[in-house]
Structure formats: structure tokens, C-alpha cells
Write a structure and sequence with these properties.
With 229 residues, the chain is mainly α. The chain is built from 7 helices and 5 strands; from the N terminus they run H-E-H-H-E-E-H-H-E-H-E-H.
Length: 229
């Protein structure tokens, strides 16, 4: 999740930008030749619903190595950086997915998704006193009731479905979400189950292309998926 402060990596990038997004971009670039050699291949980026709160400033990215320099202003009570640079990095993943989907050969498909939120001990340890009581006895039960939080058994199902279901190979550039159940037997084709809409910002084709080009430049990539950037 990062923090609400601008923390830099050894490479000079804001931490969520590098860990959550640029690493994904670089790994995908390195693996792409092998994927294209396969008879069928699938790329799945684990984004988050938090992408809807994200913002990307291409000028900040090129000159300051941060997706949006003003992200600390979006700090949320109890949720910290969820709507800050974390959300920006998750938005970047969705934008990248949609830009890359237009560049891949038909036998290589790509999707992004929102994973389920599961109860963990780490979430409890983040809070103390009244905040811990509020989270444990009010927010967490409400999140379970509304479907935002799932059991440890159900939590991985979206990732497994998108990564392994044969029908999902027939489409590309989709965004799936654990908040849009069911994943199977939804009354539609299997590849259409669990599909959700992305934010208006994520749907911006110009921003998708600008981010793709800037990412290639920041990583110093000129061949592979960046050869046509």
C-alpha cells in the first residue's frame, strides 16, 4: 500500500510506482517473447477497485518519477494511502492492460482484475484503541455483509478463474472483479461472468498511450513491446 509520504526507491522512483506498476511493466516485457512463442498465453494483472480513486499526471511521471505529485493530499482516515499513490499505481496497471491488449497477437490475451479482500491478522494490527474497535466490530462486518470482504476460501477465486478458465482465453482487455459475482453459472458466457467496468480515467485511450510511451522511456526499453510505442 505504500505510505502517504513520498518514499523513493534506490532507482529514484516513488515506491508504489516502481513496486506495483513499473515492475509489472518490465516483467511483462521480459516474458513477452516466450509468451508469443506459446500456442496460447495469458497475462493477468492484479489491480484493485482502488484504481477508481487514482490519478495520473504524465508530466509528474516524466520529470518527478511519481504518478501524481499531489497524491499525499488524498490520504484517507484509517485507510492511509489507499486512495493515494497506491490507487495511482493500480490505475496504471489497468491503463497498461488496455494499451497492451491492442498490441498483442490474438493467441496472447491480457486481463486485469480486482482481487477479493480477505480478513488477515495484519489488518487488525494496523489499528489500536477506538480505531481497532471500529474496524473489528463495525467496518469489517459491514464489508462482509456488502460483499467487499470475503472468506479466505473464497478470496482467491477471481484470480484463479481469470488465470485458468479456458473461456477467458477467447477475449482480451477485460477487467474482472470479485465484486461482480458469480464467476460461474452467471447466466452468460463464462468469459462474461465477473466482468466489471473500469473508471472513466482508465478508459481514456489517450492516457493509456501516453502512460505506455512514458513507461518505455523511464525503463529505457526500445525493443519488444516498446518497439511500437
Amino acid at each position: 500500500l505504500g505510505t502517504e509520504d513520498t518514499i523513493r526507491t534506490q532507482d529514484g522512483f516513488e515506491e508504489c510506482l516502481q513496486v506495483n506498476y513499473l515492475s509489472t511493466f518490465l516483467l511483462t516485457s521480459l516474458l513477452l517473447p516466450r509468451l508469443e512463442q506459446s500456442s496460447e498465453a495469458r497475462i493477468v494483472h492484479v489491480s484493485a477497485k482502488a484504481h477508481e480513486w487514482g490519478n495520473i499526471n504524465i508530466e509528474d511521471l516524466r520529470t518527478r518519477k511519481v504518478l501524481d505529485l499531489d497524491f499525499p493530499k488524498r490520504k484517507m482516515p484509517m485507510l492511509g494511502n489507499l486512495a493515494g499513490s497506491y490507487a495511482d499505481s493500480k490505475l496504471a496497471q489497468v491503463l497498461f492492460t488496455l494499451a497492451l491488449a491492442r498490441r498483442l497477437p490474438p493467441h496472447v490475451v491480457i486481463h486485469s482484475l480486482h482481487p477479493a479482500i480477505a480478513q488477515t491478522q495484519e489488518k487488525h494490527e494496523r489499528f489500536e484503541g477506538p480505531q481497532k474497535y471500529l474496524f473489528t466490530y463495525i467496518l469489517q462486518p459491514l464489508a462482509k455483509l456488502l460483499g467487499f470482504m470475503q472468506s479466505e476460501e473464497d478470496a482467491p477465486k477471481t484470480q484463479i478463474h481469470v488465470s485458468t478458465h479456458p473461456s477467458v482465453q477467447a477475449v482480451s482487455g477485460r477487467y474482472y472483479s470479485s465484486l461482480s459475482p458469480p464467476l460461474v453459472k452467471c447466466g452468460k458466457q463464462a468469459e462474461d461472468c465477473g466482468v466489471a467496468s473500469v473508471s472513466a480515467t482508465a478508459s481514456n485511450r489517450l492516457l493509456q498511450e501516453e502512460l505506455f510511451e512514458a513507461s518505455c522511456e523511464l525503463l529505457g526499453l526500445t525493443d519488444g513491446l516498446c518497439s511500437e510505442a
